[in-house]
Predict the 3D structure of the following.
Amino acid sequence: MTKLRYGVIGCGMMGQEHLRNIALLGDAEVAAIHEPDPGMAAEAARLAPGARCLGSPAAVIAADIDCLLIASPNHRHLEQLEMVAASGRKLPVLVEKPLFTDPAHRDRLAAFAAGYGAPVWVAMEYRYMPAVARFLAEADRATGGIRMLTIREHRFPFLTKVGDWNRFNRNTGGTLVEKCCHFFDLMRLLLGRDPVRVMASAGQAVNHRGESYGGERPDIWDHGYVIVEFDGGVRAMLELCMFAEGSRYQEELCALGAAGKIEALVPGPTRFWPDHLGAPPVAQIVVSPRDPKGPVVTEVPVDPDLLEAGDHNGSTFYQHRRFAAVVRGEAAPEVTLTDGWWAVAMGQAAQVSAAEGRAVVLADEGFAPPACHGNFMRAIQSR
């Protein structure tokens, strides 16, 4: 079988995780990369020694590749999708989250979706963490139909990125977009419904308060609560704390319904687990039926090679394996432009709610994609 040839735009921390996982696929290789930072480019060349290091995103798009990965800073994603469309090539694209960062860019995203005929997959790695994937598969049966959903992430602060771009809302979209779009995506996927109203309280309590970049202080938040009401009265809540790296588990998901409760407990990156505490924790699924009472705990181990290849509990590998099937024409994208739009829109509504101290009705304030636009995006993803 001929190996798939990837082009990669952006080879910083997340881009390098993608490079390591593409190398594990066996039936794919990285053929061309663009990374403007010399240090990151040198590491990318070490991880993908067969790739050509090119001087611009346009050069990667024009290279001899079968598909494209966009893993640049958040605020460049939409611009680079537009570059692909303008090139005239119909490359399958895997674009990192968030899909866009500025509410003013919704019309540009709609125009891209209407004009680009090749598959686009929005990188929502959290869907593919093995414990989360099992939670997704078992939640309806364990709960008898989800009526309440809580997602909690207690983790480390934002890491240092090239040029410190992730210290400012104008580049990230804000913490509830940059970090939390994963969780809003999981909410919609688990509930099978679209959000109606968002209420949030968030702020900057501990992290980055003493930092200054070019005389400017970071404005990213480090904690918050978000409540989301969905069609049919189903409710979900997010709890985020980014000064909780001492936690045993980083992500905790809990779904409840008339029949019982199911939880997924997922540890953070293995590289951050202190050696003096022994072996890192293993992800768990806990099912707690109402009758008969008694929780059932099941461990969900992950291949050590996959844990070593990235910070997302093995999910990046599984995501690439599914994306490769899309590139080969064997499947449609599982995370569509519509999904990516909603995940960002929910985060943007939460940013507004927390900043202005009010509930946000998504349809009333233009956050929801128009129904016809959403249907069209789903249609083009299945081509």
